[in-house]
Amino acid sequence: MLEEINNKIINEITELVNQTRTNLAQEINKSIVYVYWNIGRIIVSNENEYNNRLEYGKEVLKGLSKELTKYLGKGYSISNLKYMRVFYKAYPKLEELNEKLSWSHYLELMIIQNKDKRNFYEKECINENWSVRELRRQLDTSLFERLLLSDGKANKEKVLELSKEGQIISKPSDVVKQPYVFELL
After folding, report:
1. Is the pTM of this model over 0.70?
2. How far is Cα 159 from Cα 147, in angstroms, rounded to an integer?
3. Is the CB of residue 171 less than 8 Å from the CB of residue 148?
4. Looking at residue 20, what is its pLDDT?
C-alpha cells in the first residue's frame, strides 16, 4: 500500500517537472528566435541607412562580432550575424514566425528561396511535429518536389494549398491517416 502511494507521488512529481522543463525549453526557443530576428532587423535597417555598401557589410559585421562577443560571449560570430540578417530578410514580419519552430528549424527553412516551398515545409514541421533532423531528411529527399510531380496538376494545386494553409482536418479520418513515402536508395 505504501509503495503504491509512493509510486503515485513519484509519477505526479516526475510529470510536473518534465512538463515544466518542456515549457521552459519552448520559452527559451521562442526568446532566442525573437532576439535573433530583432538583431537581423537592426543589421538590415542600418544596412539600408548606408545604402547596402559592401564595405559596410564586411567591416561592420566584423566589428559587431568582435564587440558583441566581448560583451555577450559566444554566439555572435560573423557567420551567425549573417544568419540573423538572412533570417530577418526571409521573415520580415515578426508575426510570420511560429513559436513551435526553433532557431535550428529556421536555420534550415530560411535558405529556401521559393516561398511556397518554405511555407510547405514550415506547415509540415508544425503539423507533423518534425524535429530538425526530420526536416533535413525531408528536404534532402525533396518531399515538396516529389509531391508536386505526383498525380499532375490537381496534386500540384493541393500541395500549394497545403503550403498556404497546412493540413485542414475536415473529417475524423484526416486525423488518423499518415502518408507513407517510400524512398528507394
Report:
1. yes
2. 7
3. no
4. 95
